[in-house]
Amino acid sequence: MYSEKVMDHFSNPRNVGEIENANAIGEVGNAKCGDIMKIYMNIEDNIIKDAKFKTFGCGAAIATSSMATEMVIGKTVDEALALTNKAVMEALDGLPPEKVHCSVLAEEAIHSAISDYKRRMGLSDEEKNCSGCCGRCKEENE
Amino acid sequence: MYSEKVMDHFSNPRNVGEIENANAIGEVGNAKCGDIMKIYMNIEDNIIKDAKFKTFGCGAAIATSSMATEMVIGKTVDEALALTNKAVMEALDGLPPEKVHCSVLAEEAIHSAISDYKRRMGLSDEEKNCSGCCGRCKEENE
Amino acid sequence: MDVYMDNNATTYMKKEVLDAMLPYLTQQYGNGSSKFYKIGRVAGAAVRDARDVVAKAIGAKINEIYFTGSGTEADNWAIKGAAFAKKDKGNHIITTQIEHHAVLHTCEYLEKHGYEVTYLPVDEYGMVKPDDVENAITDKTILISIMTANNEIGTIQPIAQIGKIAKSHKILFHTDAVQAIGHIRVNVEEMGVDMLSLSAHKFHGPKGVGVLYIKNGVKIDNLIHGGGQERGKRASTENVAGIVGLAKAIEIATENLDENIKKLSYFRDRLISGILEKIPYCRLNGPTENRLCNNANFSFRYVEGESILMLLDMKGVAASSGSACASGSLDPSHVLLAIGLPHEIAHGSLRLSVGDNTTDKDVDYVLEVLPPIIERLRAMSPLYEGVERREN
Amino acid sequence: MDVYMDNNATTYMKKEVLDAMLPYLTQQYGNGSSKFYKIGRVAGAAVRDARDVVAKAIGAKINEIYFTGSGTEADNWAIKGAAFAKKDKGNHIITTQIEHHAVLHTCEYLEKHGYEVTYLPVDEYGMVKPDDVENAITDKTILISIMTANNEIGTIQPIAQIGKIAKSHKILFHTDAVQAIGHIRVNVEEMGVDMLSLSAHKFHGPKGVGVLYIKNGVKIDNLIHGGGQERGKRASTENVAGIVGLAKAIEIATENLDENIKKLSYFRDRLISGILEKIPYCRLNGPTENRLCNNANFSFRYVEGESILMLLDMKGVAASSGSACASGSLDPSHVLLAIGLPHEIAHGSLRLSVGDNTTDKDVDYVLEVLPPIIERLRAMSPLYEGVERREN
Ligand SMILES: Cc1ncc(COP(=O)(O)O)c(C=O)c1O
Ligand SMILES: Cc1ncc(COP(=O)(O)O)c(C=O)c1O
Which of C71, C109, D52, D125 has the fewest CB atoms within 10 Å distance of its CB? Predict the structure, then answer.
């Protein structure tokens, strides 16, 4: 069901772990829904120097976390904010329909970490309007 | 589905044909229902000297005609009248449930021929109350 | 000599079909819905590939193919599923008097539950008139179900014409194409159908597996509720081997369609002309044109069908009859009655249906053994007495 | 190394079963209802013999056995058939929260059609209380449907006790015994059931064939209408090979029942004690007594089930999970929720179900590869962070 890229990122996830003294931490999802993504970043001079994650969730959740962290490292904050779930999915050669929400979660986790960073830096009082959940739990069961 | 006896009487039916100058002829059933049995007898001194049949119908109809004619030959008229469909069935080692009506038809054919004989002989004005049909066509489709 | 002449009832399974199935009856026993381990994915992929093959064979999209446990289940699902789903729109169904019992008894069941069903008559060849279909439509009509080809007398219906009528009135149109695969071109687009039923064992596939094609966008109720198989529409652990067998069989049947039709028609026509020539008081039931290439059906006056079958069986010939006795029911075939045969003639019917393994020898043999069988039964028949006498 | 630990999902087909089926997939291709020729009679006799074997295996009479296209179809038929047949008597059905979807979704469908369904709760081990059944009965109750043994957590229900209650209230009682054959003694008399469902592929038979036992005298509506097969109660050309395979499989399963139970329990118990011992923050779901001899089910805190399955698959181990992700649905297993697990713990579940070909080596291997998998996922889990810290 998963692409080779997904399988690769699931079985050899990049950037697993925590960053001590991270200046940007975001956590989205909740255990009830079965996915939690926590992303740690080290941002210097508006550039994401490092990113790591911890994820409780399915194969796709782990693979998207891995891919998303890989994709933002080296990017500016604004570039990282522009990263969409679609881009993460494409980088993974696609996800099965019922797993698309994992890529949404990854996008949200990045946003959440950057919001945290901005708050810490006093750069912005604008709170990213994230529910802390990808919304999947509220979707109608078709 | 049929016993060996039935198959034997179907494939080598006894007493097929007509009797010229028969003094007892009975016909029961109708083409609409898919079975007609016509029995010819030669009755002398109250004894059935010969019996033959012609039957339009299924394997069981042919086998019961064959068996019934064989069973009445040599019998007195009263003995023949006492022949039940059950006796014919037993002699054939049984019939499938949906074919029981064929044995009823055979019993009725014998009765009908004997009634004919009695009428011809002026022996009885009592008409055998035979519908000319085993009644199967009127049965409820279960 | 053994001669199988009942291919409308069922067909032998091709070796290629069994070979395709065997892995899934042995090592590849995984559950087709278990995608998190290899043996399950192998099974799932086999089902997906099979779905693709079936879709291509009938001109459908892969997600319009639903596997079922039989042709009968497909018919039941299409008809009840549509009836229940559309019950707020109306309660009227149009079908014909010559459908298979899988359709007829389903419609009768719905009649007990408040639906109204029009059973259209057919002409003497078993043909439905498209005008009759159109005239039967009311503003309560929710479904038209008309078979592609009749299993007893082989009549091929003008499905594409009826499809146009159904479409112009925006009424769901189902066709039972169980007898059609391998015998005529079946293409859901050209036919203009919304639903179509198939059954593998009629085209050299395994028994116990069928297909319902449901056009994208058509919503019907489920018949078998449960797990999420078949995209949530038909629950049950997938019959992987059966599905693979069905696909292989339909692939072979459609690849070789023209050749098949030619070959089968040849044997059918030899049977028809041989029998009509050799046996008096005999009629061909069903049409001469627009007839299934493998079906021949006769009525022999003055004799009854079950007896014919039994005597044929003694000679090694397997065939079937629309006689009431042979079917265990009280009336002769509803199809033969619908084309206007009187009961007594319908009782004397014989269906010979040729197949992929039929040979000239088989046909010769039938033409050799059948006439004396009819002769013999007529000699025993009280109905024939008068005929003989009149003749002589 | 390949280790199959998902025998509750499906089982491999035994060689003896395939051997029994093969004649009916090759030369003996006759239609089981075509009794007027030899090849048909051979098929018909095979179906009759199979029916006899199944009847003997579950303590039923031969005319109480009806073959279906799956266990799911048997469940649908029993429940809808009873509901529709008894609708003048009442509209209330009693079942449990832990039934298979084949039962649950069928009941939900009936709810949309005016029926009322009580879904009884279960205790923390998945056990239904007979008193709860009795208390739920109203004068509208027409059917009780309670599974013999649960497919996820293995709980074996007190069916005989519930059977007595049903009988004393004169209410039809159906049980889904799909997981029971070959694992516990199944006898319809002792269980006091009116209807019972089976599915061949759960006991080393073929996929796509099941049985509904219907006690003589019990009248339910047909689900699949059509031809006269199965004594007019379940239409479709008989899946002769499948039916023969089912019979052979149930024969083997019941002949060797005691031996089987001993062997499977041994492997199950090795798994349970080994895993509970080696992996912290782990619980066994389901009971320790009255548990299917082949089923083990665990929850591992702080990790999610699909990831476990994927890592197990990479090691060649086939298993399943009640995690929402693994099932493609939104919620984790309704069974795990019904026994009171919070969502986050239910997500981290793993079902290992042993079978006839399980070996000590297989168990050793699972006990070797599973702990590092859980370890690895926990190391990645943000939920585990706190736990580690608290520990250290
Ligand atoms: C026209 C037609 N429809 C439906 C069926 C039912 O198919 P099955 O017996 O495979 O369910 C048959 C054959 O039996 C048929 O000939
Ligand atoms: C308890 C139970 N009931 C019903 C079923 C349905 O059986 P099938 O998938 O063979 O239709 C299953 C298995 O899938 C089951 O475990």
Answer: D52
